[in-house]
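Researcher: Sequence recovery benchmark, item below. Answer with residues only.
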């Protein structure tokens, strides 16, 4: 059967399902909108406990929808995490890295993997991606399956305007829309009213750095250096760190206010709306700034689902889940079936008690995969109902090997119960049982899945990100120095 015939058959089945009454938790043929607020940690939102009133718009959306309290991402950076979100595969399977080397290439998304957009396009949807570029531009091949693509570094207000214009276009097809913004990503440049509201009392040295970044931004055609605000971070005082965090919260509040213009138009269409993030942000909780490590401040993200007809309005799910679960949830809510290798569970079925929750949550970095950056540590983590277990392994397992463990009840991960560099003999004893064994078995299983999905048995597609536009976007995000 031809591709066109396949799409016609899927639309016919969708129409019949809608006419006969779809199963509970399934809305075939309706619009599906996925919003990714890049770098948004869950506790930055007031509906997740922030006392500073950062997110009244998202608070209202959550009150009319379904909010998940404990959601962990599978990677601490944009490209790797979005690859998991789009494919439903964990980082070790898809092998996408955020940025390994501009000169020698970065592992991108292999075309054999099936993305959300490809699933929806095959079902007759109009698929559209409005992104802020960088790793979500053309250079990582993450936007496979999107028929309409606009990847341009823009203010969140412009992004919302663009989304509203697209919604006004006449198209008989249902819509799968992906909206992405870097607004809350460093270097944190909120508009003046938000700066004054959240950080107006600060009088320290970072004000000068902020002025320098704004001046750089104001130059025609220039992008600011995203790491400039962090120069000299080794000597930051508590007030300096609090100022940076306040700038971040100001950006969250600004993004929330602008995105609030989008929600009424989507609710009027009775769209299924999913709002989340790819990762959080660090403010020195474990010695780093940005998003590099696998601690909770980097991995815990929000997830709000506004379901058609206002189903499940006001419900809060407290069971810990993983961001990888969103992929099968969106597809099955639309009456579509994920690829057989897709990980995760249907969160709506979880809420109905049809599937079991409480599974371990895994996370991993992929920067070590490229030969030019093989010395970059491979970080991986495991979280269960009892334990958090984080590893950092250099040189493919032959170099420095750090292990840290926490009780799951230590929600901020500040009191390790085990923390040391392991010797060879320690590794042998550690790997025969316990969390290391579970980690090893899990990644061995993922390797088997990868080999079966990919024809070439490798699964690493090396892409170049050397065009000047992409380099400038990466510089603005703090990923490259030049």
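Model:
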């Amino acid at each position: 059967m031809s591709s066109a015939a396949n799409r016609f058959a899927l639309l016919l089945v969708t129409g019949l399902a809608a006419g006969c009454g779809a199963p509970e938790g399934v809305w075939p043929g309706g619009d599906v909108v996925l919003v990714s607020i890049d770098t948004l940690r869950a506790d930055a939102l007031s509906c997740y406990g922030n006392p500073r009133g950062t997110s009244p718009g998202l608070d209202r959306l959550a009150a009319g929808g379904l909010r998940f309290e404990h959601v962990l991402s599978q990677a601490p950076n944009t490209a790797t995490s979005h690859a998991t979100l789009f494919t439903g595969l964990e980082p070790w399977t898809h092998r996408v890295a955020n940025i390994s080397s501009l000169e020698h290439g970065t592992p991108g998304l292999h075309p054999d993997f099936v993305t959300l957009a490809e699933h929806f396009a095959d079902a007759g949807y109009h698929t559209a991606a409005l992104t802020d570029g960088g790793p979500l531009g053309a250079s990582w091949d993450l936007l496979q399956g999107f028929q309409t693509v606009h990847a341009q570094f823009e203010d969140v207000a412009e992004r919302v305007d663009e989304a509203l214009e697209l919604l006004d276009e006449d198209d008989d097809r249902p819509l799968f829309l992906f909206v992405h913004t870097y607004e809350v990503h460093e270097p944190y440049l909120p508009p003046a009213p938000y700066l004054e509201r959240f950080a107006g009392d600060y009088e320290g040295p970072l004000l000068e750095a902020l002025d320098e970044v704004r001046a750089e931004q104001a130059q025609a055609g220039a992008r600011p250096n995203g790491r400039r605000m962090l120069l000299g971070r080794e000597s930051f005082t508590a007030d300096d760190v609090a100022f940076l965090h306040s700038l971040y919260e100001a950006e969250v509040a600004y993004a929330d206010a602008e995105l609030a213009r989008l929600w009424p138009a989507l609710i009027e269409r009775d769209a299924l709306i999913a709002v989340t993030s790819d990762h959080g942000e660090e403010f020195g909780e474990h010695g780093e700034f940005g998003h590099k490590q696998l601690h909770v401040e980097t991995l815990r993200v929000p997830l709000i689902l506004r379901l058609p007809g206002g189903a499940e309005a006001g419900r809060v799910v407290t069971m810990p889940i993983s961001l990888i679960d969103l992929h099968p949830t969106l597809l099955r809510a639309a009456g579509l079936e994920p690829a057989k290798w897709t990980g995760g569970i249907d969160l709506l079925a979880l809420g109905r008690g049809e599937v079991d929750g409480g599974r371990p949550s895994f996370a991993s970095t992929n920067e070590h995969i490229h030969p030019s950056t093989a010395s970059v540590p491979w970080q991986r983590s495991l979280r269960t109902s009892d334990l958090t277990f984080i590893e950092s392994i250099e040189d493919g397992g032959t170099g420095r090997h750090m292990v840290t463990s926490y009780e799951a009840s230590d929600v901020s991960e500040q009191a390790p119960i085990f923390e040391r560099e392991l010797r060879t003999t320690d590794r042998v004893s550690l790997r025969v049982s316990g969390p290391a064994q579970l980690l090893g078995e899990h990644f061995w299983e993922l390797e088997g899945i990868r080999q079966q999905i990919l024809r070439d048995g490798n699964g690493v597609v090396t892409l170049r990100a050397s065009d000047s536009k992409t380099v400038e976007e990466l510089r603005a995000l703090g990923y490259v120095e030049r």
